[in-house]
Amino acid sequence: METLAFQKIYTKIKNITKATITIEADNIGYDEMALVDGRMAQVVKISKSEVVLQVFAGTEGISTNAEVVFLGNPPQLKVGEQLAGRFFNAFGDPIDGGPNVEGRTVEIGGPSVNPVRRKQPSQLIATGIAGIDLNNSLVTGQKIPFFADPDQPYNQVMANVALRAEADKIILGGMGLSNDDYLYFKNLFTNAGALDRIISFVNTTEDPPVERLLIPDMSLTSAEYFAVEKNEKVLVLLTDMTLFADALSIVSNRMDQIPSKDSMPGSLYSDLARIYEKAVQFPEGGSITIIAVTTLNGGDITHAIPDNTGYITEGQLFLRNDSDIGKVIVDPFRSLSRLKQLVIGKQTREDHPQVMNAAIRLYADAANAKTKQDNGFDLTDYDERTLEFAREYSLQILAIDINIDTEKMLDVTWGLFSKFFEREEVVVRQEFVDKYWVKN
Amino acid sequence: MEGENKTTGKVAGIIANLVIVEVDGPVGQNEICFIQHPESNLMAEVIKIIGDNAYVQVFESTRGLKVGTNVEFEGHLLESTLGPGILSRNYDGLQNDLDKMEGVFLKRGDYTDPLNREVKWDWTPIVKVGDVVKAGDWLGEVPENGMPHKIMVPFKFKGKFTVKSITAAGSFTVDDETAVLTDEEGNDVTTTMVQKWPVKIAVKSYKEKPRPFKMFETGVRAMDTLNPIAEGGTGFIPGPFGTGKTVLQHAISKYAEADIVIIAACGERANEVVEIFTEFPELDDPRTGRKLIERTTIIANTSNMPVAAREASVYTAMTLGEYYRTMGLKVLLMADSTSRWAQALREMSNRLEELPGPDAFPMDLTAVISSFYARAGIVYLNNGESGSITFIGTVSPAGGNLKEPVTESTRKSARCFYGLNQARADSKRYPAIDPIDSYSKYLEYPEIVESLGEKLGDSWIENVLKTKNILLRGKEAMEQINILGDDGVPLEFHKRFWNSELIDGVILQQDSFDEIDAYCPLDRQKLMLELVLDITDKDFSFGMFEDVSTFYKKITNILKQMNYSELDSDKFSTYHGELDSMINERLN
Ligand SMILES: Nc1ncnc2c1ncn2[C@@H]1O[C@H](COP(=O)(O)OP(=O)(O)OP(=O)(O)O)[C@@H](O)[C@H]1O
Ligand SMILES: [Mg+2]
Hints:
The structure holds two protein chains of two kinds.
Chain A: E1 9-10, E2 13-16, E3 20-24, E4 33-36, E5 39-47, E6 50-55, E7 68-70, E8 76-79, E9 87-88, E10 104-107, E11 124-125, H1 130-133, E12 138-139, E13 143-148, H2 154-164, E14 169-177, H3 179-191, E15 198-204, H4 215-229, E16 233-239, H5 241-254, H6 268-276, E17 280-281, E18 287-295, H7 304-312, E19 315-322, E20 327-330, E21 336-337, H8 352-374, H9 381-398, H10 406-420, H11 430-436
Parallel strand pairs in A: 9-15, 13-18, 13-19, 14-15, 14-16, 16-18
Antiparallel strand pairs in A: 1-7, 2-3, 3-6, 4-5, 4-7, 5-6, 8-10, 11-12, 17-18, 19-20, 19-21
Chain B: E1 8-15, E2 18-23, E3 31-36, E4 41-50, E5 53-58, E6 70-77, E7 79-82, E8 90-91, E9 121-125, E10 132-133, E11 138-144, E12 147-152, E13 161-166, E14 170-172, E15 179-183, E16 188-191, E17 195-198, E18 215-216, H1 221-226, E19 229-230, E20 234-238, H2 245-255, E21 260-266, H3 270-279, E22 296-301, H4 307-325, E23 330-336, H5 338-351, H6 365-373, E24 377-380, E25 386-395, H7 405-413, E26 416-417, H8 422-426, E27 439-440, H9 446-456, H10 460-484, H11 491-508, H12 522-537, H13 545-563, H14 570-587
Helix pairs in contact in B: 4-5, 6-7, 10-11, 10-12, 11-12, 11-13, 13-14
Bound molecules: adenosine-5'-triphosphate (ATP) and magnesium ion.
């Protein structure tokens, strides 16, 4: 963004804190953007003629006579077909060496969709990953995060899901992305020949952390353009939302706000909800689906970031390392897709819901048996069988490297039922047992 | 406060949705004002006054707002508009009709009329000229979706009035005259079908509010059978995310014995509201056969809508409830989630730099919550009829920890506690209501116990207590088995454990997504409970502990199939027969 000739230049900064500067100025709009010594800044407080600006890159080295120029608008993005295939920074400026995008200018972080203008999500997204498609089916218009420890391959899983999802556009919002991961996404999308349907807004670990705060809004504003104006199916990938929330806490801390749980700002729920609620199915066919990553600290989901996220999103996909099979699985206990009931048994085979539940119940029995075993007790025959079942189920269904269709997932599961159990041990509606039980 | 000359002011400061306005005249606490942003008027509410500075919370985004912008004060508090045509509507937290808004996106400052001013209603007068009436008395009625919608003396009217004239039966719009009333000083006032009421003040146009005295049927076994809520009672559902609060509330709103259902989606997901919009017009009310949407009103202030309006949404919902209660109707009010409302209070209190209480919530949180819950209740109206608001709120405890301020404050106000348990939800034992920790204080009310006896027979309460006892002993037995091992405990422990599993599987667990199991009327609950208790009474003999689980799993499976079958169907009786023979076989 460049300064325009007629804009007034202020040079008398009154206060400077780590994150903000204060200056006397009139006729300034709330949320307006400015340049402070060439750095992007935004109005966060106005009191009479005193304006407080948050400087995204921090205030280090800024002196009281630095130049301040107000840009007269909130953060904006130029939207148009030309966005496709391009890489941008948090301010929407190209970082791929390409030309600036021509298009209509829109404010980012715009208004919400009227709930009565939404359509109920109803279109299944097939990923081939059975831990997702069988137990936690995704639907267009859904918002769901991966909960994963930092050492798990969440970005790879997410990229796989994105490429198999048959979306018209994939928008990557990278926050605090390592340069390696950034290049991983770039190469993967290029090699898959998918670059023309991908748009990336990236803040890497080399960029100032507070700039990340703009990434979700940039990504979702461009998503809205394609979903509303072009009626496209848009998939937005946000990684890592934990680093986004960390940036929120940095800001609120620097502004002396009272922290609530885990040093997070009291508004964390609303701040995250504003982003995730942009997921939507429009009646005209366009949709925005959000798949995010929330990294955990030692699997702790009671921390304010995953906790608030869980209260906002429509389920979560919990990645866990299963040491019994030596693979990362989609944990069937802690994972949940809340929109699955809109599609399972309707767009998938009729026995899907019951088979899914029965398998998870048996898997839970296996977990109990395991506890028994660990406590040194004798196992019953049933216990032994559940343990064997759980192992196979992990390998053939839960592991994230599975890639089969839903029909096959159901057949595999019925196969495991019949292999290890009696009919009445598997609580499933009689008519399905009659139809699908695999007779050995 | 109302007057010709409105107080005006100018914006002097802005921090997110908190705006400081310098005023030139009197302003009242909680008074409504409009900030005249060039794009559109932004509605706001006064929340603090210091000298000439009014601190207002804006119900909209303040983006682009500038110091010096004009503000006009309205002279009244935030009000609901009450009249026929509220049912089946979808409102936002400020009672704007969402369907009347244009475009896909919500435009800020777009305020729409909650009522339809053109449609004509079939009016029948109730009072006669010369009758003496007061606030809340019924002047006449119009049918609204098959329900008698009473047109009342406006709640704001103070003192006694004599009916000077009353409009004869006919077809009228809400703004047409319904009556002329003369007050004690001889002044005439004209009434229409519309009145307004400030949402944060309780409507008290009734004679008396007794203690709740009869149960309120929800169709959910884990509630009705074990811990029933009373008509006009209060309850809350705390639970970590994903444990089933919303699904449970939706289930209750579908099958509960209410005339009117008001659902406040308070800071939750828009897709969940869409689910109601989509499903309720298709589903039948099991009691009237009409569509569920006809008795339902939705207040949708989803999490991406402005935070201040979120706080207003629960009050708007309660006010609509009080309006219908005063018509002598049974209202069920649900709020999902009251924690989001508490968080809205917290955000504002932090911006005001008030001294924070625990977890940075405002100090008066408990008082705010309890005065809200106190607005529920069953009432006797001036004419002796009764009406009620049964209120059930969900609570979303931070980190799933029930020791946090919102849960603790709510526990002090709500009489029923339906705690959702993470472990139950994880093992898909839905609804995940914890059978041991949950309670209904109403079971301690002799009048409720008596009404239960009348409805369900003298042995009912005894059976309920017995069920709870079996569940408790089952839990203890399981703990022992876990410590000592399957072989380390007497066989009796296994039986105890499996008896509790039987009750869990057949009575507690209920599939909200199964067409038949989703709704279990009371008589069916009674049948199933007696059937199950009868089994737990039996003196089965088993050789080894493994036989216990095998047998119990089999009968649980059959009883579950019964839950999935139509009550008087062949299928049901076939399973019943199978069950009997399996039991007899075991006994011999
Ligand atoms: N009674 C039930 N029967 C079957 N499945 C259920 C039931 N209750 C909950 N579930 C499952 O659990 C999921 C989460 O339930 P729900 O949305 O009600 O949780 P919640 O407690 O409201 O969560 P949040 O606090 O995040 O809003 C549902 O989408 C559904 O898959
Ligand atoms: Mg919910």
